[in-house]
Amino acid sequence: MTAIDDALRANEHYAQTFTAGNLAAPPRRRLAVLACMDARLAIHRMLALEEGDAHVIRNAGGIVDEDALRSLLISHHVLGTRELMLIHHTDCGMLGLREEELRSKLIQESGAAAVAPARFYGFQELESNLREQMAKLRSHPWVPDAVTMRAFIFDVRTGRLREVAAAAE
Amino acid sequence: MTAIDDALRANEHYAQTFTAGNLAAPPRRRLAVLACMDARLAIHRMLALEEGDAHVIRNAGGIVDEDALRSLLISHHVLGTRELMLIHHTDCGMLGLREEELRSKLIQESGAAAVAPARFYGFQELESNLREQMAKLRSHPWVPDAVTMRAFIFDVRTGRLREVAAAAE
């Protein structure tokens, strides 16, 4: 029995008790969340979100790279979200990641170089990195000024979100 | 009261009853999920995942772009996951997205062109697009052969996952 088989058995039960089959694509709460992929972040439970409430965009570190930007532009302009929560967390695997070491290891183990990904986006400090992601969004001409944007650090020990001021350091 | 304020009030309750504070970063089930950001997909509930079980990577469409690849490489090589579920869904907002129309609208509304994102990754057909994402991963030299990879379409009407064969069409 693999982890995927387990998940599929659970989905069978989910489908049998599913009552959210009449929802449209635009998120009901007009909310988007951009968060780290970390396994300890169960976003729906953490924020009490139901099916249909919010877009959830996740990647390693909760970074505003080209793809998160792509997803957020779709979210705001095509599907009408008007608020964004950016969620990083304590004990993140990207904190202190040695990018060149990882790249060398991958090249050595696979015997091949690769064009993509060009960067891994490891970072050295949690709050300044979070502010940098906010600034990248705020400076992009296609991110609507009308979108409310707030940034948080999730404490994996306590389950609590702490807001990080948006002001530049 | 904004959607973010609502979510923060819910997080206060979550933190008060939080019991998962002793988990390490590597996912317990050694599972990663790459899924669309769509609001109707509540991944943890859909698959009965608990805090600590699995990485969850999400973007518009569940596309294997440079960033999803970055996140998956971190997941497999740095944090030890060994299975991957790729989850697209019916009624996806990226189905039939007219990329050039969207780009023109953004340039017109903002009065500015932008370098990124270079693509929006709209697609025309669900199953072939899903197979294309699988093929991009399988052909990348840094994605370990040992990772079990399976692809699914989530039916937003029934809550049920349907597996899509990995074979090329």
What this model shows, in words?
The structure is a homodimer of 169-residue chains. Chain A has a domain at 29-96 and 124-164: Beta-carbonic Anhydrase, Chain A (3-Layer(aba) Sandwich). The mean pLDDT of chain A is 96. Helix content of chain A is 34%, strand content 18%. In chain A, strands 2-1-3-4-5 form a five-stranded mixed beta sheet, covered by helices on one side. With 169 residues, the first copy, chain A, is α/β, with parallel strands linked by helices. Chain A has helices at 3-16, 43-47, 66-78, 99-110, 126-139, and strands at residues 31-36, 54-59, 83-89, 148-154, 161-164. At the A-B interface, helix 1, helix 2, strand 2, helix 3 and helix 4 of A face helix 1, helix 2, strand 2, helix 3 and helix 4 of B.
Notable characteristics:
18% strand; 169 residues; Beta-carbonic Anhydrase, Chain A; homodimer; 5-stranded mixed beta sheet; 34% helix; alpha/beta
What is the fold named in CATH at topology level of the domain at 29-96 and 124-164 in chain A? Beta-carbonic Anhydrase, Chain A
**Number of distinct beta strands of chain A:** 5
Oligomeric state of the chains present here = homodimer
Which runs of chain A of at least 5 residues are low in confidence (pLDDT < 50)? none
What is the CATH architecture descriptor of the domain at 29-96 and 124-164 in chain A?
3-Layer(aba) Sandwich
Please tell me what the overall shape of chain A is.
globular
Note the run of SSEs of chain A as H and E. Answer: HEHEHEHHEE
Sheet with the most strands, sense and barrel status of chain A: 5 strands, mixed
Distance between the termini of chain A: 50 Å
By secondary-structure content and strand pairing, the structural class of chain A works out as: alpha/beta
Beta-strand content of chain A? 15-25%
**Greatest chain-chain contact:** A-B, 95 and 96 residues
Overall mean confidence score, pLDDT of chain A: 96
Strand order across the largest sheet of chain A = 2-1-3-4-5
